[in-house]
Structure to design on (319 residues):
């Protein structure tokens, strides 16, 4: 890991999103000053409201596809993008733009100030994978014209652009491939499996399983994920690094875990599997273990308990 400069100053895009807001908290706790950017297309002011009065935190409402003028920074962290299938299907053009034009603007800032650049890519780069678990050297099986392509190809392009700035302009870059992550500050209605199932369980509704529920995912609690990203930010690793929890379960098993945890028995209902929904997903995290000394610590039961508590408090606050 590299040492931090004496006055680290980070630019974070997507700062009002689920992961971006947790990243701002972590950077401030590590002594960074933070310039946070978001256009609120899917992020929420509520996620960063607690930082309003923080002396080292400044928020700028901006779409990062526009030129960025923030003055010198030591670190640039690119986290802006719709990330849930529901959100990127609703905003396919914005999703392509933020991964391409937005990433380019963020890379320009890093190049100008010789800042360290971290971009948050995704396990979707592997598409519906033929290699299992997914290791970083696997090039993936992505449908370039399917409904998910706006997200998958945008992220794949952002990786290619990041490598080009590294090779052609000498920018110090790192690429995180993030696998399914959950925790407080997710939107209850963003359509992803954890908030969807928790919302249904909290309201005593049946759980909606898409397909037959035999597809698998591996879910990482947000504090573990952010720790992996932070370590990668301070590292010199250039090639993509998987960050996620390798404990894999089927969606049907996942529904059972949620129902048991919440003490509900409204049952499950089956709905059609969305097009190109990956059948299996599990990160191979050998690389992150080796080069970052990182692995997840929070198990599913514990992580879900924290997440349920957050959603319950939200419900109470909203009446
Ligand atoms: N899923 C489901 N019911 C829901 C939401 C999602 O069965 O209400 C499934 C979805 O089809 C996928 C998995 O859960 O197989 C994870 O979906 P999510 O939207 O969280 O993210 P993805 O991993 O597909 O990007």
């Amino acid at each position: 890991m590299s040492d931090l400069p004496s006055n680290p100053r980070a630019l974070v895009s997507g700062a009002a999103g689920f992961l971006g807001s947790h990243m701002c908290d972590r950077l401030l706790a590590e002594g960074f000053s933070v310039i946070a950017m978001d256009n609120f297309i899917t992020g929420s002011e509520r996620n960063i409201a607690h930082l309003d009065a923080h002396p080292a935190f400044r928020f700028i409402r901006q779409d990062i596809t526009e030129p960025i003028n923030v003055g010198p920074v030591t670190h640039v962290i690119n986290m802006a993008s719709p990330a849930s299938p529901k959100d990127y299907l609703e905003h396919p053009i914005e999703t392509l733009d933020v991964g391409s034009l937005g990433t380019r603007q963020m890379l320009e800032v890093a190049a100008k100030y010789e800042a360290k650049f971290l971009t948050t890519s995704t396990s979707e780069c592997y598409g519906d994978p033929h290699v299992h678990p997914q290791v970083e050297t696997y090039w993936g099986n992505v449908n370039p014209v399917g409904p998910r392509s706006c997200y998958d190809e945008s992220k794949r392009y952002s990786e290619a652009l990041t490598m080009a700035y590294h090779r052609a302009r000498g920018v110090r870059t790192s690429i995180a491939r993030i696998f399914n992550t959950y925790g407080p500050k997710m939107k209850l209605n963003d359509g992803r499996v954890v908030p969807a199932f928790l919302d249904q369980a909290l309201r005593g509704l049946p759980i909606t399983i898409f397909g037959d529920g035999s597809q698998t995912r591996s879910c990482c609690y947000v504090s573990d994920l952010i720790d992996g990203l932070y370590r990668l930010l301070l590292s010199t690793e250039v090639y993509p690094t998987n960050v996620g929890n390798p404990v894999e379960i089927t969606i049907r098993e996942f529904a059972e875990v949620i129902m048991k945890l919440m003490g509900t028995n409204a049952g499950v209902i089956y709905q059609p599997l969305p097009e190109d929904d990956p059948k299996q997903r599990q990160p191979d995290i050998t690389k992150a273990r080796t080069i970052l000394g990182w692995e997840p610590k929070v198990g599913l039961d514990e992580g879900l308990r924290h997440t349920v508590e957050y959603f319950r408090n939200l419900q109470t606050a909203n009446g």
User: Anything to note?
Assistant: The mean pLDDT is 96. The first strand starts at residue 9 and ends at 13.
